[in-house]
Each structure stands twice: as structure tokens, then as C-alpha cells.
Amino acid sequence: MPARILDGKLFAAAVQRRAADAAAAFAAHTGRAPCLAVVLVGDNPASRSYVTAKGRACTACGIEPRQLDLPADASKDAILAVVRGLNADGAVDGILVQLPLPEPAWEEEVIEAIDPAKDVDGFHPVNAGRLLLGLPALTPCTPVGIVHLLAAAGIPTAGVHAVVIGRSRIVGRPLSVLLSQRGVDATTTLCHTKTRDLAAFTREADIVVVAAGRPHTLRAGMIKEGATVIDVGVNRVPDQSRPKGYRLVGDADYDELLGTAGAITPVPGGVGPLTIAELMANTVEAARRRAGC
Ligand code: GUN
After folding, report:
1. CA neighbours within 13 Å on the CB side: how many for 200?
2. Residues 108-137 pLDDT 10s
3. How far is the CA of 121 from the centre of ligand 1 (A)?
4. In whole angstroms, what is the distance from residue 283 CA to residue 71 CA?
5. CA–centroid distance for 276 within its chain
6. Superfamily of domain 30-115 in the CATH hierarchy
């Protein structure tokens, strides 16, 4: 039987509707809309398109979007000054610095400069540490979206073996923690570039999440019959038959896995929309906590 296609747009729409309702209730209570500030450094086309999509989602949810564009050659001090200005601005509830920065070596310092109460990405060490300890925290959007998607789709997680491929701070690491948290209760294996015999792990998994940033990471023969495949990859591959000259593919060989998987997310239209919807939810949550409502 062909796999069930997990339509991320559908699940994201429900999350976004709830965020919009919560934003409206916040505005009625405080007299102002929640506000998300997004900082974009340089002009990476993929980053720009994500930032544009985040701004549109804010508007759709009744969240005030603010976009701050800095040139690719902005100094580290200039970026830190923008972040500190947003920390001090009482009207800003959420701060997101789009990654990667043109100078990736600065990312740690820039993330640590964000007020943890406004860190809607959940990347600050305070939020990452609280997540690890199972304490209330702003939680990274893609991992939390994946956990919500599995729940909404009725895919059991308790006691199952989940294999996560990729150990990034954005997806792999926090997701491995979330999946093993009380209430989600998966047994989790985190695989990465140095894992020996990746297929030996993925073939044992009930759920495989592939967030490696590399096409063809998960191929035919690497999963067991009926497994759930969550594909986080968004890779641009040249394709002159497309108007933009490229097409988007995930990290999994979707067509090859359709016949074996029990359920699978497409790319695009799978995990991507969930990330943005959860960002809206985190922004309203940050606003409510800051306002004490
Ligand atoms: N780059 C790719 N995904 C993300 C994300 O979720 N947050 C930020 N800040 N940058 C990203």
C-alpha cells in the first residue's frame, strides 16, 4: 500500500488558526498586537524567502512583523547592537536572527545576546537547557512542529524507536530531546555524519526523521515496512525545466520510499509550513508570558 502523505500545510493551518485566536485575545487584553522582529543579515536567497514567508504569516495571524535588514558585510558589533536594541524595546515580544549568518562563527555570540524571554527560536542556551531538563521553555519551531504533526496524524510515539539523522541546534539535537520527553516517550537514537552504518539504525526505526541537509541521505532499502518518514531537508537542485532554474528536494528519496513507508512528509509542503506556524505560536506565547497574561 502506498504511504499516507502527511500534508504539513493542513496541520500548519490549524496551528496558525490557534495562534491567530491567541493573538486576538492578547490584543484585546493588552491593547496591542504581539510583535515579532526578524533580523536578516546579507542576501542569501533562501533566507530571504523564509523571512518573507515569516512576515506574511505574522500579518495573517494578527502579529506585527518587523524586518531589520543588515548588509552582508555588517560587523558583529553592528548585529549585536541591533539585537540589544530589540531586547530593550518593550513593544517587541519575539526576536529571530535568520541563520546562517554570512559569518557563521558569530552565530553563538549573536544567539546568546538575545533576551531568552524573546528567543522565539528557542536557540538560546537558557531555553535549550530548560528543554533538556523538561522545564517550560520556548522550544525550537521545527522540532515542536514535528512532534505536534505526529500527534495530530495519530502516529504513536510512546515506546517506539525514533531515529533522528542530523545533530544541528535547529532540528536534530532539540528534536531528539523532545521525542524522548515524558508524554512523547519515544526511544531515540541520534545519528550524524560520523555514524557507522546509518542504514543499520534506520532499518530498525518506527519513525525516521531526516535532517541532514543533504539529498539522498535516506534511500530505498533503508527503512522498514510501514515506518514513518519525516523529511526536514530543503535542498535546491538545478532544474532548467523550472521557471526559477531549480527545484526543491528533501533529504529522503521520496518516490523510492513511497512504496515502503507507512507515512511520509513531502518536500515542499511537509515540515516547512509547520515551522512557520509554530513560530507564530511561540511569538504569542512569548508575548503572553512577558505581559503576564
Ligand atoms: N534557518 C533555517 N531554519 C531556521 C530557523 O528555524 N530559525 C532561524 N533563526 N534560522 C533558520
Report:
1. 3
2. 999 999 999 999 999 999 999 999 999 999
3. 7
4. 26
5. 7
6. Leucine Dehydrogenase, chain A, domain 1 (3.40.50.10860)
Is residue 206 lining ligand 1, measured as CB closer than 6 Å? Answer: no
Q: How far apart are CA 139 and CA 79, in angstroms?
A: 23
Cα atoms in the 13 Å half-sphere on the side-chain side of 223: 33
Domain 141-272: homologous superfamily in CATH: NAD(P)-binding Rossmann-like Domain (3.40.50.720)
Helix (H) or strand (E) holding 230: strand 228-231
The pairing of beta strand 187-191 with beta strand 235-238: unpaired
Q: What is the CA radius of gyration of the chain?
A: 19
**DSSP summary character for residue 108:** H
First-to-final CA distance of the chain:
48
Question: Would the pLDDT of 2 be above 90?
Answer: no
Kindly give the distance from the C-alpha atom of residue 13 to the centroid of ligand 1, in angstroms, as a whole number.
20
pLDDT of 62-74, one tens digit each? 999 999 999 999 9
